[in-house]
Design brief:
Two copies of one chain form a homodimer.
Chain A: H1 3-29, H2 41-57, E1 61-65, E2 72-77, E3 85-91, E4 111-113, E5 116-118, H3 126-142, E6 149-155, H4 165-171, E7 180-183, E8 195-200, E9 202-211, E10 217-218, H5 229-238, H6 261-269, H7 274-281, H8 294-300, E11 303-312, E12 321-322, E13 325-334, H9 340-354, E14 360-369, E15 372-373, H10 379-392, E16 397-401, H11 407-415, E17 419-422, E18 437-439, H12 440-460
Parallel strand pairs in A: 3-6, 3-7, 7-17, 8-16
Antiparallel strand pairs in A: 1-2, 2-6, 4-5, 5-18, 8-15, 8-17, 9-13, 9-14, 10-12, 11-13
């Protein structure tokens, strides 16, 4: 098969379908399927129905499968045991849209301006789900037979941490049996620089509660005799990292994977302007571990941050109290092969050891999710690499992602699948923020790359 | 003059007047003269009018004098150049009453239960102002001639820090010319243990603002490359005191007065049960400078506390951000002869020196008020000591007060007067809190002591 010719054919079909396909996506984007807010529960069901119907229109078998939370949309095309099966994962739920006043057009009134489609969910993740779906449509236009069997799992709780999906996967293990897992929910590195993400950091998120007296005290009358819970908590926080930004929890670095020199070289070769990036974030200067570059630090090094702190009087002016308590939220981004629960236990011991006299501190667990490291040499990754090279004319960047997609670990543990993280939106597409958008060209390239990926997968096996 | 006989006469008059006097006080307490809330501005004026009328009924000359804020009530009795003049200072404004739901009877519906008069302001300070006024009434009942000239300055802004009183005193210096200043706005040490307060701590109250980036960042995507402003601020806070609870601001202890061994002995002789007191505050244990007892630390040693802190996400659950900024309120209780502004400047330099890289921190001033130390050997104190001994049958305790009454410094600087701090409420009378109260016996003893004080002043000169 001449893949260059196929690529041109695919491109032609995408061109021909573009208007209709964008209209379908717009209709999908009109549904305010905000998962975190119970007021939008009907919209969640509407979005699931919309998808099921759309899959069926295109000739796929589709079902809405209940979970203990929002339903999963399942779809299937082909059952040929001679062909590999690709499972496409995505989500139809979206983030809340507020602050509404900052949107140029309504978050659920999709509009095209200057080559971008603006709406909540345009990039995250409805637009990228449609890249997968329209890749199927495109291939079906060219041929009745696809080179792969396809499964779709489109969930409705990604934006609230997929609380029910792991149990769902365990229960439906056989229904989702596949050899490859395609996920388009990460950005490209930059315009015209497609990327494959091969490392996601894990997350350990805890909350410290420090308490020293029964009630707030008068800071004049009692100042000098009791432990101040804010100062006590501040002391503990000050002992979590040293001046070189090394995390001080015993054993924290023990299982951290060492970056190979080839990996370091690869990361250093990705174009990156530190000054521009500091300007973008409004940071006075970057700080962190000296022996690692900015991209190494935010993708492949573990770190610790305080995400919130509160205690005592926080209104305007002054109030002369010694507060009874204070609390802080602490998150650690973990990398392979750190174990979140081992570190949680070590943190608990460490905090109780360094806790100042007169203070009681508890360490409560919010989240513990493992990091993910994906082999760059798998057949799936090779197929994605080739597809992206064909569409963009350049080799994709292999990059890490500092954030976490906790549910990917469940795919690994229940189905034995590593994800192929091939996403198409751009870093400035304002996901989770007002004026979320998806470039029309990104959208077309996404369809094109996905269609070619299916072909390379079919060829490679 | 037989002072024992006079004391018995005074007691008899108090007994006779008690019902009527309590009714007058109740009427005064019904006026919700909350100074901090503009909604109660009419009540402020009502309280001032009530006082002026009451003074005039008793035969004093009285005026309402405007300030740039709430008015001052002035009253005068006697102008004999042969007699000493006592200025009685107090305040007719009160703290807000919320939380209302915790009051057994309404804060402005004064009620007597089990020997206590319950109402907002009962102890702080309307009830104690009435001790002074009814002492005058009692003496006038016994004789047309008082042994002293009397001046009253009852202000309406004490609970908001007396922002206009210093200028007012400067302007009306001559009107308030006196040899003695009597203030009843501090508690007795314990039931049946009257006290004279001879040291008040000063206050330096600042706010630290720490900033590291323009906006909140995603803690996954950017974690490991920027300074975390909460952790940076926590580091600074951790450097303000060492493990021995010594404040680390350079020069902080340089001018601190050393307690004399006689003073130490005196303080140690005051009955104090550390265990009971820790239980009362709900403190696991007391902490602080090892070489000083609890009462020494809270009365005559300087200290530093954090009164409030806030930064990042403080709602329920987790949010994965690196906040852009964080802030903390810090107060220092100062003792003689520390200079608040010298320490403020040293703190600013210290903070900028220890500020972690990538962080900007400002130190803003809220309050700087000097400590006050009063000679225990003055004629006024001796007169108060004798009066208290006569009424309570025991020598008063000489104690410090950890809190501050900043306006007392203005009396010193404008009128050259040290206060005689002879208060009558008890430590558990819930001032500033729901169910504020004043014991009827305390009230009677307050009138009695004040009347005798006036006599001793008259005799001593």
């Amino acid at each position: 098969m001449n893949l260059h010719a196929l690529s041109q054919d695919i491109s032609a079909v995408i061109e021909k379908h573009q208007l209709a396909d964008l209209q379908s996506l717009k209709n999908f984007l009109k549904i305010p399927s905000i998962s975190t807010d119970p007021h939008y529960r009907n919209a969640i069901d509407d979005a699931a129905c919309f998808l099921k119907n759309y899959f069926e229109e295109l000739g796929l078998d589709s079902e809405i499968l209940p979970t203990k939370g929002h339903p999963v949309v399942y779809a299937r095309l082909g059952k040929d045991p001679q062909k590999p099966t690709v499972l496409c994962y995505g989500h139809y739920d979206v983030q809340p849209a507020d602050p509404l006043s900052l949107w140029v057009s309504g978050p659920f009134d999709p509009q095209i301006r200057d080559g971008y489609l603006y709406a909540r969910g345009a990039s995250d993740d409805k637009g990228q789900v449609f890249c997968h779906i329209h890749a199927v449509k495109t291939l079906l236009t060219l041929s009745k037979e696809l080179p792969v069997n396809l499964l779709f799992l489109i969930e409705g709780e990604e934006e609230i941490g997929s609380p029910h999906l792991k149990d769902f996967l365990k229960e439906h293990r056989e229904k989702f049996s596949a050899q490859f897992l395609l996920v388009s929910d990460t950005p490209m590195y930059a315009p015209k620089m497609p990327s494959l993400c091969y490392g996601l950091r894990g997350l350990l998120y805890v909350e410290l509660h420090a308490k020293s007296t029964k009630i707030d005290l008068h800071s004049g009358q009692q100042g000098g005799i009791v432990q101040n819970p804010i100062l006590g908590l501040a002391y503990i926080l000050s002992q979590l990292k040293n001046k070189e930004h090394d995390v001080q929890i015993p054993g924290f670095y023990q299982n951290v994977r060492t970056l190979s020199s080839e990996e370091k070289r690869m990361i250093d070769e990705i174009p990156f302007d530190e000054k521009d990036y500091a300007l973008l974030l409004g940071a006075k200067k970057f700080v962190g571990e000296k022996d690692y570059s900015v991209n190494m630090r935010r993708w492949f090094r573990p770190t610790l941050d305080c995400n919130g702190i509160v205690g005592g009087y926080t209104g305007p002016g002054s109030k002369t109290i010694i507060p009874a308590m204070a609390s802080a939220k602490i998150s650690m981004r973990l990398v392979s092969y750190q174990d979140p629960m081992v570190i949680f236990n070590s943190l608990q011991e460490y905090v109780s050891r360094i806790c100042p006299e007169g203070l009681e501190v508890s360490v409560d667990l919010h989240t513990a999710s493992e990091p993910l490291l994906i082999s760059k040499d798998s057949k799936g990754i090779k197929a994605a690499e080739k597809a992206l090279k064909m569409v963009f004319g350049v080799n994709p960047v292999f990059q890490g992602e500092g954030g976490s997609i906790p549910i990917l670990n469940a795919f690994k543990s229940t189905l034995g699948l590593d994800p192929i993280l091939m996403g198409f939106n751009l870093p400035d597409d304002a996901i989770h923020a007002p004026n979320e958008r998806f470039g029309i060209q990104q959208y077309r390239d996404g369809i094109h790359s996905t269609a070619l990926f299916f072909h390379y997968i079919g060829l490679d096996l």
